[in-house]
Amino acid sequence: MAGSSTTQRKKRKSKVQLRSLNSQEHLDVDKTVKRLRETKSDLRCESFFEKWKDELLIAASDLRHQVLWNKNEESRVSADHSGNCSSPGQMQCVCYGLGPFSSCVSARYQLAMLLLLLEAAQIELSDCFIYDPIFSNGEKAVLKELGLTVLTENEEGKRRANEPTLFYLLHCGKALYNNLLWKNWDTHYLTQMIIIGNCFSALKDRAIDREFSRDYNYISRITSVCKEILLPCPSHMIDVFSDSAVLTFPSSDVDKLSQSTWINQQEPQYEHCVDLEIVQKSKDTSR
């Protein structure tokens, strides 16, 4: 999709978010949960959902094998006498930047897709950590009613993948992806991540190379070894799921980067960015 369309979509989303922030709406939690479950059922019947599910399951299977291999390598193949290896553990999920799903149809469908993918990957709802500074108290109550874990602090995407983790970041700002990569800028942590979000190669192609390398250095450096599987999007859901992909960082590719890649991991500052597309802690109006 053209860069201008993406920018317009983000501006529309920002306007909806601003209206939600200024709203004093008191949600009917039960009614909102019911509507979400209906949206989830509708989405399950969409043919493109099967492709999303299949690609996630393939990525999750590859990730679990990679994590298990890493653990066995670290412990010199710590298998018991029967030949069984230790389990790589349960996968977690982190969702940032979903938007005001009670008032925005696109955000509601994105939340419904998240719930379907959690179910498909057998990730416990309580192991899905979700945050957006735009969430109203009513929306937080809905998310808790669904069983998700609502984070209370703006992490700005700076969460480390200490265990296999799916990051669900649809149509989020570049700074959020860049912060996430910075926090996990290590061969061990990167290979424990799956991201469902915007294609890094597309983000890079749409930008001026010099500025992109300066402002979003971590995305710029990882793109060459990031495995991207484009996800289908029907024409009637362009505003909801366009430009989405499953992103992973296979060890076989990440290990090709020079050792100097991992040195001097400076925290991103974005002093040159006018339109940052992320709510920073100092500007977080939810607290």
Features:
287 residues; alpha/beta; seven-stranded mixed beta sheet; 7 strands; disordered N terminus; SRR1 domain containing; SRR1-like; SRR1L
What order do the helices and strands come in, and which of them pair?
Elements: H1 3-22, H2 29-44, H3 47-74, E1 92-96, H4 105-120, E2 128-131, H5 137-146, E3 149-150, E4 165-169, H6 174-183, H7 187-190, E5 193-198, H8 200-206, H9 209-215, H10 217-222, E6 227-230, H11 238-241, E7 244-248, H12 251-254
Parallel strand pairs: 1-2, 1-4, 2-3, 4-5
Antiparallel strand pairs: 5-7, 6-7
Helix pairs in contact: 2-4, 2-5, 3-4
Describe this structure in words.
- This protein has 287 residues and is an alpha/beta fold.
- The protein has a single domain (3-19, 48-74, 89-257), classed as Rossmann fold.
- The chain has helices at residues 3-22, 29-44, 47-74, 105-120, 137-146, 174-183, 187-190, 200-206, 209-215, 217-222, 238-241, 251-254; strands at 92-96, 128-131, 149-150, 165-169, 193-198, 227-230, 244-248.
- Helix 5 links the parallel strand 2 (128-131) and strand 3.
- Helix 2 packs across helix 4, helix 2 packs across helix 5 and helix 3 (47-74) packs across helix 4 (105-120).
- The chain starts with a helix and ends in a 33-residue tail after the last helix.
- The relative contact order is 0.15.
- The model is unreliable at 1-5, 14-24 and 77-87 (pLDDT under 50).
- One of its GO terms (cellular component) is nucleus.
